[in-house]
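A.,

Following up on our hallway conversation. Structure tokens first:
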């Protein structure tokens, strides 16, 4: 929490109102902390809960879901006024609870009462179940707020459209709607039969369903899950990996006896996927994983051990020098640092604490990493460039700049796993298959 706390002084006339005020105080200060420090909300709320263990599971749910709901609808809510004004903030909380269809009606009713400024607030409407479509929610927001001027595009900052242009109005609306919907938890089965794992999860009352695109992918639903209580996760048979991220490993499609280098591995989600794909296909191969963050590589080691994968070697970046041998890999994956606009569904706060520089300050670094990493590709080998960005500035333009400087590489045609489209690069949009957003391009080294 920030050093300077904001205190709500509303008088409570019932136990429900007392709880509503307490929740509002906590949520307000968490929100202010995110905006003041420009730190991810997940990190800030995680730290808060570690420091305040008094909160039970219900308290944590109300606080967390209300906070993230505020960020999802912030493009509309911030037009109500200054969130530090307590009446305005109560109004924001009440409207968010309606738009998100939160079940804590007694708390919402108190927020609605405390936030009522004039006759435009319809408390009866606020208590009913809200429609599901974005356009219907826009109509609801206008009725509850008394602000007729708000539009759908307000839910995404204007600078985004300048760097991620979408000409088709229907697709633009679909993207906005997806960004304002809670994403599912996607998982991937490894070292096990997916059908059996799915049945075991369902037997534990987990809302797990299969995936029409990848046989090893499982949708775990939208509700929070304590993974440490799921034995399929703790024994390494289940890894959390978004469906869009899983596309990258499928595009890599490692072959028998191939050597792969995951040049920006992070905590190893894609390294584990590549190894799992090899195991599933009953082929041999080896993965070398590199990152500049030692903690991420330690986490990769833990995950690999849990999964029983022995053919993953670590080679941390120590400097600008290549941490692996040149011309020695059949495949090199560069999942480059980026603006992460493709993950805005999971991190709605990033829409409002980032600015255009999160996109514009990355391409030079991305091109540098891609260029240096390409030296590790054998002649005839493949180079995969991926980001979780939706911007052509970080995606197609980086690939084009790389190819202009490295004529020994050429683009390969790849098939979009969700649409069947064939192209030399793919942007996975969140609305297409209820996933995050990703970009991927595959190149082959045709000469030395």
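Then the amino acids I'd put at each of the 448 positions:
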């Amino acid at each position: 929490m920030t050093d300077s706390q904001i205190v709500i002084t509303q008088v409570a006339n019932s136990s429900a109102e007392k709880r509503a005020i307490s929740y509002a105080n906590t949520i307000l200060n968490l929100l202010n902390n995110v905006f003041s420090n420009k730190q991810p909300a997940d990190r800030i709320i995680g730290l808060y809960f570690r420091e305040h263990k008094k909160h039970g599971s219900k308290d944590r749910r109300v606080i967390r879901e209300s906070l993230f709901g505020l960020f999802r609808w912030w493009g509309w809510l911030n037009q109500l006024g200054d969130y530090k004004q307590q009446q305005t903030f109560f109004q924001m909380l009440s409207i968010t609870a309606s738009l998100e269809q939160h079940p804590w009606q007694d708390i919402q009713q108190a927020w609605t009462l405390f936030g009522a400024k004039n006759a435009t607030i319809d408390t009866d409407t606020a208590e009913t179940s809200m429609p599901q479509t974005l356009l219907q929610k826009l109509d609801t927001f206008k009725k509850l707020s008394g602000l007729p001027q708000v539009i759908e595009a307000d839910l995404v900052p204007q600078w985004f459209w300048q760097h991620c242009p979408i000409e088709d109005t229907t697709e633009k609306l679909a993207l906005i709607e997806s960004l304002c919907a809670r994403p599912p938890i996607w998982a991937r089965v490894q070292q096990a039969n997916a059908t059996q794992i799915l049945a075991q999860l369902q037997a534990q009352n987990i809302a797990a369903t299969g995936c029409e695109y990848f046989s090893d992918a499982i949708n775990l639903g939208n509700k929070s899950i304590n993974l440490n209580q799921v034995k399929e996760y703790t024994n390494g048979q289940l890894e959390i990996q978004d469906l869009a991220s899983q596309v990258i490993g499928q595009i890599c499609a490692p072959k028998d006896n191939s050597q792969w280098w995951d040049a920006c591995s992070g905590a190893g989600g894609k390294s584990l996927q590549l190894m799992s794909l090899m195991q599933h296909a009953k082929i041999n191969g080896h993965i070398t994983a590199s990152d500049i963050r030692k903690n991420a590589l330690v986490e990769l080691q833990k995950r690999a051990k849990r999964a029983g994968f022995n053919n993953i070697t670590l080679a941390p970046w120590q400097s600008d020098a290549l941490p692996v041998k040149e011309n020695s890999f059949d495949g090199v994956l560069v999942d480059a640092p980026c603006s992460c606009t493709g993950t805005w569904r999971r991190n709605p706060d990033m829409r409002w604490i980032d600015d255009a520089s999160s996109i514009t300050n990355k391409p030079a670094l991305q091109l540098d990493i891609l260029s240096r990493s390409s030296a590790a590709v054998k002649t005839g080998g493949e180079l995969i460039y991926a980001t979780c960005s939706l911007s052509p500035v970080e995606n197609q333009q980086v690939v084009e700049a790389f190819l202009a400087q490295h004529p020994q590489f050429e683009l390969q045609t790849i098939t979009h796993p969700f649409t069947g489209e064939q192209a030399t690069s793919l942007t996975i949009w969140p609305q297409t298959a209820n996933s995050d957003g990703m970009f991927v391009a595959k190149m082959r080294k045709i000469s030395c």
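The radius of gyration is 24 Å. Curious whether your intuition agrees with the design.

B.
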